């Protein structure tokens, strides 16, 4: 079986003049190499395709694959993660991971929370600030938490994201609107424990492979699993596998969200406990990072004893092939 691999290579975008933060969600060559070598070790023929522009050229040239392993994040718009899957759908080429609908929905955190609420899954109260005039309409009680509505990897999240006054709300929202040129989601601040739940599989076959608690060390940015803390996780963050009652509730909520939204094959759900200790969904990550060393899902796999090179990638392929068959 010939498996193509689609990805956005961070080095290419840095060379083109994009900043480290703008390219933070893209993959480095060691991630692509690790996936390629793992697939070859599992007995598959591989073909490195690259980003959507490369995919477009290859399709126009008549190239086809039995399956595409997709980790391409895209560059522009709320539908950027959906672009490669949508193009593959147009050519009836099967691929790993979620479909364009789910990837577009999950990237927009406000729309995701609307759907989660309709499913009865806990998520914090929120307001969407699309322009400066919307800030005065935010009536949620302080403290609050603000971040860009459609970014990942902690982009736009700093210690200033926790907001305790209307003055701070004004300043933070204005800065995020200017910097990221997209709406700002303002949520009730969740003060409790923070978890990420790894999920593998699709629909009824989906299982939670573990619940990882995120502990910020003393010299980390306080209260937030920020871009800075993630980039310096070895010094600032400790990860622990947990299975107490709250962790089990987090796992149940994560699985309900995964199945309810229609996510496929593998990803992460991030949660944080409210003032009553109940885990609320913060973000759904159907296109989770797969760097073998520093991405959260592979870190969680290491804690649970799941080998990245054979087991995790193998589980993703098997889940995707069920659709192909």
Keywords:
single chain; 325 residues; alpha+beta; five-stranded antiparallel sheet; four-stranded antiparallel sheet; 12 helices; 12 strands; 21% strand; globular
Structural account:
By secondary structure, this protein is an alpha+beta fold. It is 37% helix and 21% strand. It is built from twelve helices and twelve strands. The chain has helices spanning 10-15, 29-41, 52-60, 83-90, 100-107, 109-118, 166-180, 227-231, 233-236, 245-261, 296-304, 308-324; strands at 2-6, 45-50, 67-70, 126-129, 144-148, 162-163, 184-188, 194-200, 207-216, 237-241, 266-273, 279-285. A five-stranded antiparallel beta sheet has the order 10-9-8-11-12, with helices on both faces. α2 packs across α12. The protein starts with a strand and ends with a helix. The model has no long low-confidence stretch (mean pLDDT 95).
């Amino acid at each position: 079986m010939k498996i193509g691999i689609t990805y956005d290579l961070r080095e290419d975008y840095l060379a083109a003049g994009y900043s480290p933060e703008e390219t933070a969600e893209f993959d480095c060559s060691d991630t692509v190499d690790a996936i390629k070598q793992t697939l070859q070790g599992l007995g598959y023929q591989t073909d490195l395709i690259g980003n959507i522009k490369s995919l477009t050229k290859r399709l126009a040239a008549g190239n086809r694959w039995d399956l595409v392993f997709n980790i391409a994040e895209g560059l522009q718009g709320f539908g950027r993660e959906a672009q490669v899957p949508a193009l593959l759908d147009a050519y009836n080429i099967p691929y790993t991971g979620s479909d364009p609908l789910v990837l577009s929905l999950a990237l927009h955190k406000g729309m995701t929370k609307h759907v989660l609420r309709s499913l009865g899954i806990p998520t914090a109260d929120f307001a969407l600030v699309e322009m400066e005039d919307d800030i005065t309409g935010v009536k949620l009680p302080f403290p609050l938490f603000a971040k860009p509505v459609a970014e990942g990897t902690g982009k736009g999240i700093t210690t200033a994201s926790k907001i305790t006054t209307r003055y701070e709300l004004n300043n933070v929202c204005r800065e995020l609107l200017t910097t990221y040129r997209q709406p700002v989601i303002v949520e009730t601040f969740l003060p409790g424990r923070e978890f990420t739940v790894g999920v593998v599989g699709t629909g009824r076959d989906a299982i939670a492979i573990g619940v990882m608690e995120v502990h910020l060390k003393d010299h980390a940015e306080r209260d937030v699993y920020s871009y800075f803390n993630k980039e310096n996780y070895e010094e600032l963050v400790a990860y622990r596998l947990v299975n107490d009652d709250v962790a089990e509730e987090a796992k149940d909520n994560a699985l309900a969200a995964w199945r309810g939204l229609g996510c496929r094959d593998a990803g992460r759900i991030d949660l944080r406990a409210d003032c009553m200790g109940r885990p609320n969904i913060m973000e759904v990550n159907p296109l989770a990072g797969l760097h073998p060393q520093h991405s959260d899902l592979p870190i969680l796999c290491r804690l649970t004893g799941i080998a990245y090179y054979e087991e995790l990638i193998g589980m993703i392929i098997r889940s995707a092939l069920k659709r192909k068959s």
